Amino acid sequence: MDNAYEALVESEGDTRWAFGTGFDDPLAGVDATVPAGVDGPDLGAYCLMLGDDALILSHRLSEWCTRAHELEDEVALANISLDLLGQTRMLLARAGQADGSGRDEDRLAYFRDEEHFRNVRLCELPGGDFGRTIARLLVFASWRLAAFNRLGESRDPVLAAIAAKAVKELTYHRDYAARWLVRLGDGTDHSHQRAREGLEAVWPLVDELFEPHDVERRMVGAGVGVDPASLREEFDAVLGQVLEPAGLATPETPAMGRVGGRAGRDGVHTEHLGYLLAEMQGLARAHPEATW
Amino acid sequence: MTATEAVAGGEDELQRHFDATIDHDQRVEPRDWMPDGYRGTLVRQIAQHAHSEIIGMQPEANWITRAPSLRRKAILLAKVQDEAGHGLYLYSATETLGVDRTDLTDKLVEGRQKYSSIFNYPTLNFADIGVIGWLVDGAAIVNQVPLCRCSYGPYARAMIRVCKEESFHQRQGYELLLTMMSGTDEQRRMVQDATDRWWWPSLMMFGPPDGDSPNTRQSMAWGIKRHTNDELRQKFVDMTVPQAETLGVTLPDPGLAWNSERGHHDFGEPDWDEFKRVLHGNGPCNAQRVERRRAAREDGQWVRDAAAAYAAKQADRERGAAV
């Protein structure tokens, strides 16, 4: 064919869609049965937590698009954002199956209000400069990789399969962030300072990552979930391995306070999330009857 | 005769060898001798193309955070990422001609090199994302498919890969429009509005009319360009009209009609004064597009400096370890 344009109205051959985008239902063909002895609504809430983490950080990373310092990093940041978006789609789809509501990924992403989002507050922090972006990504990917490595053994086979795929992606995300944090920390005096400031800005949100919510405790009991508190040791070891060659110290900034004991997993967020959701959800909500 | 033998014969021999390569429709490769004018024309054209890919990310990235479904968001993000990749291969192709990517970026932000003027128009509703895929990528494909046979090897090879990906993008854009046209009245209105705004700028993507295109003749003689601007524009119109009918939108040209005598569609004349204004920097988004690129370069200087300083320290440490 002399002209690729002629392929346009062909009705077949849709396998040629760009990778990862050619499906309407991210869990099509997967057995949706909730395993015996597992509480469906709890499993749904647990998948929402993991899915919302990915959705909100994917959004923050996508804000870099057209703003990166080099084309190679433009591609890398978009790629990481896209991986997290892929994880989001599967996890939200699983959440809607498991909780019995039948809500699909878009219903969950676009038609929930702020107080129903279950992501940790780390994800919603505005991106800041590249130093903060990298510091946050290193923290997030190290924490999530530790969790997803264990979720590969989950009693929910769907969650286990999602985790197994995500582990490969998160390993790359952690590696990308670690290499950059070392370069920035051990680059120029100025970049060292930016890396330090970035790390200090995200550090108050680190403790929250390891504080289990009741849903998480119950999912641990059911053999489905991971106790976040159990991830701290691995996380500290990984961060130590990166901060040492970067010449950076572990920040001593205190943890961000909770609101009446509640934080991201309880639907109590920072002021930033409302703006993020207004931007993300605005068009979808303006046309609730539309199909896209 | 090989290039080495040609060198022995001096400049005339080199020129004859180059001309024979072009006449036999063979590829010129980076290490072959080539006339300065050929090299300069290629650098200008490929750099312009690379800049267009990079600037062209902006009107689409404008909707990534607002895409109304997660699937559309993923498609759009993947597409914009592909465009960064196209920019990378094309800048690499210019580097085979002895120029530096950094210098080309300098020229872009200083306004000394151009990019496709279509990207100086704004994306105002989500159907614009579909229409860019359908019309803008469609026009780009019509322009670029013949470049897969361009006489300069690295450019021709880059274009094969770029065209394959562009055709995914175009299908995705058209599929978005088909979906929107089967949705609500408001969605259909968005598609028609976007079509009205992008149709004429898409026709301008083929460049000025042949009578007004000073570089075409030489570029065709060198095998860089294979068809004239007007030929490509006609081809695009002929292909697009039935697609618009399938979609159910009206192309905003009262003069558009099938001419059975010519076997082509007749169509109206784009507003070439508007084209010139946009080309000279006075389109709706020229300043914004270049400013974004300039800001990305300046804001990222400290990161590039850090990477260079770190690489130098690593090299020192390795030398130290080797001693």
TrEMBL record, chain B:
One of its GO terms (cellular component) is cytosol. It is an enzyme of class 1 (oxidoreductase). Pfam families: PaaA_PaaC. GO terms for biological process: phenylacetate catabolic process. InterPro entries: Aromatic_CoA_ox/epox (IPR052703), Ferritin-like (IPR012347), Ferritin-like_SF (IPR009078), PaaA (IPR011881), PaaA_PaaC (IPR007814). One of its GO terms (molecular function) is phenylacetyl-CoA 1,2-epoxidase activity. Its EC number is 1.14.13.149. Keywords: Oxidoreductase. NCBIfam families: PA_CoA_Oxy1. This is Ring-1,2-phenylacetyl-CoA epoxidase subunit PaaA. It comes from Halosaccharopolyspora lacisalsi. The lineage of its organism: Bacteria, Bacillati, Actinomycetota, Actinomycetes, Pseudonocardiales.
